Amino acid sequence: MHRVRLSRLNIHSWVRTWVLAVTFTWLAASVAEAADSPSVGSPAPDFKLQDQNGKWHDLKSYRGKWVALYFYPKDKTPGCTTQACEFRDNVFAFRDAGAVILGVSVDDVESHKEFSEKHSLPFPILADDKKAVAKEYGVLKRFLGTVELAKRDTFLIDPEGKVVRHYEDVDPKGHSQVVLKDINELQAKRS
């Protein structure tokens, strides 16, 4: 009887050690992959990407407007769908504030088209399938050691093209309201 308990204890200990080792290896690889994000107060890096309809967008075209540039990992996943739909549901409030919403992931144009149509997204979803913009913004992350996706980060860019807020590892639920509140507060301070 004593040997059975000892064997079970050894198995549980081995499994726990293996899980911790894999977790720490994954975290170390993820941290090593992360590049520096543009800091608050610095100019937002420009880009040129296609949206879900094949139309090209560059950041400099949005000068004079507030830009909520949100990066997300993958089309058609639960968290990404929640986040996109909440931005969709607040799109008129963003427009009233003189702000635009731009979503970005490393999915391609066709994937964005399906995702956008399914959820009636009325704002551009930009395809960064070469991963250059996610890398430049410091949000490209390697998951499980092999798959590179964008982290769920948002950059709020002011009308002059500067980063005024960087929201890291955001919770998709309620995030669009937080960004909208910050836009309104920042606009009030500048008036």
Automatic annotation (TrEMBL):
Signal peptide: 1-34
Domain Thioredoxin: 38-188
InterPro entries, sorted: AhpC/TSA, Peroxiredoxin_BCP/PrxQ, Thioredoxin-like_sf, Thioredoxin_domain
Keyword vocabulary terms for this entry: Antioxidant, Disulfide bond, Oxidoreductase, Peroxidase, Redox-active center, Signal
Record's catalysed reaction(s): a hydroperoxide + [thioredoxin]-dithiol = an alcohol + [thioredoxin]-disulfide + H2O
EC number(s) given by UniProt: 1.11.1.24
Gene3D superfamilies, per database record: Glutaredoxin
Domain of life of the native organism: Bacteria
A Pfam family annotated for this UniProt entry: AhpC-TSA
Function: Thiol-specific peroxidase that catalyzes the reduction of hydrogen peroxide and organic hydroperoxides to water and alcohols, respectively. Plays a role in cell protection against oxidative stress by detoxifying peroxides and as sensor of hydrogen peroxide-mediated signaling events.
Family: Belongs to the peroxiredoxin family. BCP/PrxQ subfamily.
Protein name: thioredoxin-dependent peroxiredoxin
Organism: Steroidobacter gossypii
